[in-house]
Predict the structure.
Amino acid sequence: MRAHKRLIQQLQQQGIKNSAVLEVMQSIPRHIFIDEALSDHAYANHPMPIGYGQTISQPYIVARMTEELLNQGMIDNVLEIGSGCGYQTAILASLVRKVYSVERIKELTNKARKNIMALNLNNVQFYHDDGHWGWPEHAPYPGIIVTAAPISVPEALLKQLAIGGCLIIPTGPKGQQVLLKIVRTRDGYERSTLDDVSFVPLCEGIS
C-alpha cells in the first residue's frame, strides 16, 4: 500500500534506524486498529481517536518508544501499560517473546484482544486493571512501555523493572510532557529525556 510505504519512509527521515522496528511497522496493518470511518487516514503520521477519550499513538512515537526499548539490549518480555486498541501491543508482540498488557477500560481490553487475535499473535496476555500498579505477578520485566502520561513515574513500575531493564514512559501535565527512558541499575535508576510529547493522561481506577 502506497500510504503505508510512505509512512515508513517518513519514519526513516525522522530518525528511526532499527531495521526490525521498521520491518514490523511495515508489516502490521494500522487500519484494522481504527474505526472504518477514519481508515483513509490510517497511515498518516499522527494520533487518532479510538473512543473512550483515548487515542492510537502517532506511528513515529510508537516506533521511537519501541526502538529505544530495544536499544537497551535483548528483551525477552515486555509489560505494556495502556493496551488501547492494541497497535503498540502488536508491534511489541512481533519483536519480543511475550507481552503482558494492562488496560483500565474494559471495552478497550476487549478491543485490543480482538485485534491481536485477528493478527494471529499468540504471545500477548491482557489484564483489565489500573496501570499505576503494573502487573507484579510476572515481574521483574526487562522492558516496560507506558502509553499514557502520569504526572510522575509510578513507584510500582520502577519496582517491577529488572536490573538492567528499561522503562519508557511519558510524564507530566498536559502541555509539559516529556518522554523518559529509565534504566534500572544495581545502585538505582538512570534517567534520560528523549522528546517533548503529548499523551492522554494515565488515569487511576478501572472502568
